[in-house]
Amino acid sequence: GINAEYGINSTFLRCLWDLYAPVVAEYLSETAVRCVTPAVNYHRVYNLSVSNNASTYSAPIPFTYNPVPSPNITSYFPNKATVFGGGEVIINATDVLPNPELNCYFAPTYVVAAKLLAITNITMNGSMTNATSNSTVKQNVTQLYTISCPIPPNSAAQTIKLYFGSNRVNYSRPVSFEYRIPAPIARYASPNHGFLEGGTEVLITGERFFNTPGLMCKFGNILVNATLVPNRNESLLTCVSPPATSPGTVSLYVTNDNKNFSYPLEFTYYVPPPKVVNIIPRSDTVLGGTVITAFGKQFLSTYGLVCKFGVAEPVPAKIVETDPETGEGTTITCVAPRYLYLTDANFRVSNDGLFYSEPPFHFKYQMIVPSITSIDPSSDLVYGGTDLTVHGTNFFPLAFNCLFNNTVVTAGIVVGTEFKKAICSVPRLEEAENIQNPVKIQFSVWNNQTVPSNNVSFTYSPVPVPKISSISPATGLVYGGVLVVITGKDFVPNDKLSCRFSNGNDTQEMPATMVEFSNNTKLTCTTPPADRKSIAFVSVSNNGKNFSNPLNYTYLVPVPTISSVNPNSASILGGTVCDRVWKGFCFIFIVALPIYC
């Protein structure tokens, strides 16, 4: 507001501050006008004049421009971001001069434009009311400005100073803003275990691994340096496990800055295996039972201290001598287990049942010689096929055989008999059909076809001649196909078992099938066709050569029945052909006689 004389209410009423462009004045009265101060470059005293015609100005009076006040930051959020930037920081401040030059200064690099979001009136007692453009600011009210600034990237993980300014000159006091490297993502660790002494190189796969001084792995609470694998797009690194004091699983982390860590993986520490320098003795039979002494170091008195012989289950070990300085075992003993396999074994020792000593020692398992005490039965027919039970000792289950003279038959050890009982099937004797008298052979067993056992006698009996007592049915039609049941004794199930049907002029042999194997007393066979009504002699053979006593089987011819004659009349002189419709099971050719009507 300017008080003056001779003011004229005209459209050319102006105010002028030195050489800055004239500003349109508002006429209030002949003695008062109002002008809006223009923006100037410097805070100092300027000459202010007024004109009624925008040309001739009054004598100047002094007008002082004061410095722009520095904003005061009252709060801000967030106070940190990743080095990649992004997002925005929200600042609440007072003493703000709203203008297009509002900015945030992320010292010492970035100045970014700020955006005014809201203005809120705050009274001295802390109550708040919304500001409006027409409201009058009371002396006890402070205006709070809410501003947003985009967060720029930063070249390093560090804490910088953040300023807010109403222009590029007047800034607030700085606040701290932290740039962080983002936490990495660890997905897999290989291997995910190692020994207590450390030194295991671990390969970790993941994302956001950065080549920074803070790139490290953390095993439990122990940090170790990590190294990026080249040309893998920051997705693969290696680090070496540090020593641990006790076995168990620890959390494994990755960090780029020793502040932000990945979600944990798991890494398991195991007891280191002992070192074996010698074992005595280095062989045993497959039955095991021999005490083995192993010499070395780092034998630990743990529940997992075991000896392992090849693929057999581990056996417990016992420390018998220790190093007086370290307290670690230097000599252990364990008992060689049964080794039911066809190979020798590698001998190793472990402190935890997981990791074993290297290199292994060769341990020789020697095959044992079996012994026979009895066999049951001690005889069979020449066709064989009977299950033979063998009693004895030292039977080896994985390669146990029976020997009938020179014929090798695979045998099976009976479970739960401590390798003292086995079963094998009696093989067929060569040219069994031609054997007429008992044949005695030598029977033995062996393990893995090495040294055979003692011999016992086994007798092959010739095939008996059957005896038959009945046949049912004992009659049938001449075209055969009747299934007959023959009862008798000494029937032997085999592929040579057959029935013979003989009627003097013709002899036919038919395969037979056993129907009662328990006592070999019944069999069945199918009758062959016959050329006429007759009586056939039926006998049975076990070998196709020696036949039983015969029984009679009667072949019958069916009696035809006439159901119609066409024509059914003729001349007494004869000569008419009659078509007969026969009713029966077969057609028999006969001489036709004339039919008299």
Structure commentary:
- There is one protein chain.
- The protein is mostly beta strands.
- Helix content is 0%, strand content 48%.
- The chain has no helices and 54 strands.
- The strands form 12 sheets. Strands 18-20-23-22-21-24-25-19 form an 8-stranded mixed β-sheet, with no helix packed on it. Strands 8-10-15-13-14 form a 5-stranded antiparallel β-sheet, with no helix packed on it. A 5-stranded mixed β-sheet has the order 9-17-16-11-12, with no helix packed on it.
- It is elongated, with a radius of gyration of 58 Å.
- The C terminus is likely disordered.
Task: Report a brief summary of the structure.
This protein has no helices and 54 strands. By secondary structure, it is mainly beta.
* Helix-strand category: mainly beta
As residue ranges, the low-confidence spans are: 126-138, 583-597
Straight-line distance between termini? 163 Å
Helical content, roughly? under 10%
Judging from the principal axes of the Cα atoms, what is the shape? elongated
DSSP strand content: over 45%
Radius of gyration, in angstroms, nearest whole number: 58 Å
Question: Major beta sheet, specifics?
Answer: 8 strands, mixed
Number of strands: 54
Average per-residue pLDDT, rounded, comes to 87
* Adjacency order of strands in the biggest sheet: 18-20-23-22-21-24-25-19
- Count up the helices: 0
